[in-house]
Amino acid sequence: MSQSAEKAGRKSGFFARLKAGLAKTAQGLSDSIGAIITGRTLDRAMLDQLEEALISADLGLATAEELVEALAKQKLGREVSDEEVRGALAGEIARILLPVARPLALDPANKPHVILVAGVNGTGKTTTIGKLAHQMRAEGRSVMLVAGDTFRAAAVEQLKIWGQRADCAVIARAETGADAAGLAFDAFAEAKAKGTEVLIIDTAGRLQNKAHLMDELKKIDRVLKKLDPSAPHTRLLVLDATTGQNAHNQVEVFKEAVKIDGLVMTKLDGTAKGGVVVALAKRFGLPIVAIGVGEAIDDLRPFEAEAFSRALLGLS
Amino acid sequence: MFDSLTNRLNAAFERLTRRGALSEADVTEGLREVRVALLEADVALSVVKDFVAQVKEKAIGAEVLRSVTPGQQIIKLVHDHLVEMLGEDESEFELAVEPPAVILMAGLQGSGKTTTSAKLALRLLRQRKSRCLLASLDTRRPAAMEQLAVLGKQAGIDVLPIVAGQNAIAIAKRAHETARLEGYDVVILDTAGRLHVDEELMDEVAAVHAATRPAETLLVADALTGQDAVNVARQFKARLPVTGIVLTRIDGDGRGGAALSMRAVTGCPIKLIGVGEKLDALEAFHPAGIASRILGMGDIVSLVEKAQATVDHKEAERLAAKVQKGAFDLDDLAKQIQQMKKMGGMDGLMGLLPGVGKVKKQLAAAKVDDSMLARQLAIIQSMTKAERRNPKVLNGSRRRRIASGSGTTIQEVNRLLKQFQQMSDMVKKVGKMGMKGMLRGLPAGALPPGFPRGGLS
Ligand SMILES: Nc1nc2c(ncn2[C@@H]2O[C@H](COP(=O)(O)OP(=O)(O)OP(=O)(O)O)[C@@H](O)[C@H]2O)c(=O)[nH]1
Ligand SMILES: Nc1nc2c(ncn2[C@@H]2O[C@H](COP(=O)(O)OP(=O)(O)OP(=O)(O)O)[C@@H](O)[C@H]2O)c(=O)[nH]1
Ligand SMILES: [Mg+2]
Ligand SMILES: [Mg+2]
């Protein structure tokens, strides 16, 4: 995103910013729904088309069907306007998303509050950690980052740069292939000793169908409990908005491995609709603690159900 | 969560016992299920619609063969059409230009460009003896250049030295010039991730293209991509003369519908697939394999290939000879487990097999997974040579020592030895029954996953 667009975004506040981020997203969906509903009587054929429009926003078949059925109950056979149909759909979606729009909660009783960040390769874990650290520093908290991705080339360097940007310490080991769990343990001990308020642990990207990599993640989760049975206090799963229905498997398997406490959805500044979160919210009810809307340090936003749903349907 | 298309279609056609030509009603019924399957596999809606219409045309009036059900018949039609649409097998690279041939890598953030650049250089070196120069044009992502430098070092490929402050176009020109002067065959340009709607950055990559006239321009995309795949592919194609697509993370359990979406809207061949994070995890694209996967039928072609590529045939023969003599020992079992791991572990293999859902559940119930393989291996490795040759000497205290040495429990050690005992009993019978008969006779759970099955090795 260009500098000027970024500045404009910052000035005009969250809703405008979110809308800008989702504008391209919404355009496609609203175009297709606009084309479908042109002030006629809402009939089955039109409902089918509406369902397809939702499917192409990655909501998935089951959720799309359900939403359209809800709409049919209210409006089948009635004269409907474009606005009205979109409003009703957005309302349904917001109803589903409202319970999961919950920001990250830090418990000051935890010293430090340990956040473990996991996810599939390239979804935006490291970047999101940089952004989160920046937010927390701005709130005046002390933050320490742990370079738990000891596998990928230059992953440590990448996190160190984010640490500089966010002005916080980064704990890392020089050798690649170092034991991530051991590192996390040591960093936790160090953060405890120093009285650091938040400890954020980066992990290597892993596909959820690789059992040995999931075991490694479980091990990190486990060793932290040796120092504090309630740690890690928050386990975040980072999802990429461009991902389609595989997000279901991702949440299911990561959740099974380490009991995920919250989701972050990144890359919502593209045209990907991220509609899969609607289905995820219904199925798992996990909080969506933040969304990523760009590569810059302040491109992390709270997830707001109402705004997200309306923006998704091209409504202001 | 997803039912395989085969199951769906069979259910849809259960009522249909009638034979003869497929009627329009049969086809419409069946294609509804096909549409569902394709959508669940993340094929973009517009592409699904075209696809279904084309298959419908082919299917109506087609004879139902005596030996198959109408459901199977439609699957075959769908599968064949899918393969056709996915395009040619193993499209080769057009590098027959005056060297150095430039390969430009582009795509969304995090799609796998940098990793694939290094993999590709290694592949070209191994397959064509091409001398490659890698260059990172990513001036934006933190440590992107270091990442490529590290990967180059791991792969033994030269990487253009970093010059601070240069922009992407300047680096591209320097890379091209360096490659020309120093006699490289190929120069691979890794670019920063960019959104297809980011005008500024799309202009930048177009300018890089204009400045270096690449022989190949590859769009690197994540196989897990959903409906947005069509937008991404279309818009990259509109701004860059894309010559091929690389799909990464095929080693995941995504259904890979993006392959069809991207191929359909760009007409560009899928040239390569990324199947892991390691540098040799780049493979040729086989449409039949991806077609089966999209349809939820498992990737039999790939499985067979993988087995051929990784199973050490000499080793297999040696083992067969031992089995013949009834002299199968724990060392042999360890080798089997290692072989299994080399083939991608349980998950790697299971992902390729048809009907995995059910088998996976059974395996999960029996706690058969990669960590079990690793633990079994650890147990065997904690034995002395003599113990491995003759497990009969393993008394309680030895078993305890092995359990603690391998970080497992005595129960696990016992279980492994029991399995081994059952196996060696079977092995002794092998002369009479033959391998296949023996495997069929094994009690459930007695066979460790690494043991060779008739069809595989
Ligand atoms: N456009 C956009 N790009 C993002 C966003 N979040 C992350 N990225 C980019 O996505 C790419 C991958 O991000 P990383 O933070 O390295 O992802 P990761 O999950 O740590 O990756 P691995 O550690 O390799 O698994 C980088 O180019 C980031 O700049 C976002 O919200 N929007
Ligand atoms: N499992 C798996 N991981 C892959 C594959 N290809 C790349 N990766 C991983 O995906 C992540 C992102 O890969 P990169 O090569 O950094 O992606 P990129 O497109 O260069 O990212 P940006 O430069 O940030 O846009 C890394 O963790 C890689 O190890 C693949 O085929 N399979
Ligand atoms: Mg990372
Ligand atoms: Mg890169």
Can you give a write-up of this model?
- The complex is a heterodimer of chains A (about 325) and B (about 450).
- Chain A has about 325 residues and is of the alpha/beta class.
- Chain A folds into two domains: about 100 residues, Four Helix Bundle (Hemerythrin (Met), subunit A), CATH 1.20.120.140; about 190 residues, 3-Layer(aba) Sandwich (Rossmann fold).
- Helix content of chain A is about 50%, strand content about 15%.
- Chain A contains twelve helices and eight strands.
- An eight-stranded mixed sheet of chain A has the order 3-2-4-1-5-6-7-8, sandwiched between helices.
- Chain A is elongated.
- The N terminus of chain A is likely disordered.
- In chain B, α10 links the parallel β6 and β7.
- Helix content of chain B is about 55%, strand content about 10%.
- With about 450 residues, chain B is an alpha/beta fold.
- Chain B has an eight-stranded mixed sheet, with helices on both faces.
- The complex binds guanosine-5'-triphosphate (GTP) (2 copies) and magnesium ion (MG) (2 copies).
- One guanosine-5'-triphosphate sits at the interface of chains B and A.
Can you summarize this structure?
The complex is a heterodimer of chains A (316) and B (457). Chain A has 316 residues and is of the alpha/beta class. Chain A is built from twelve helices and eight strands.
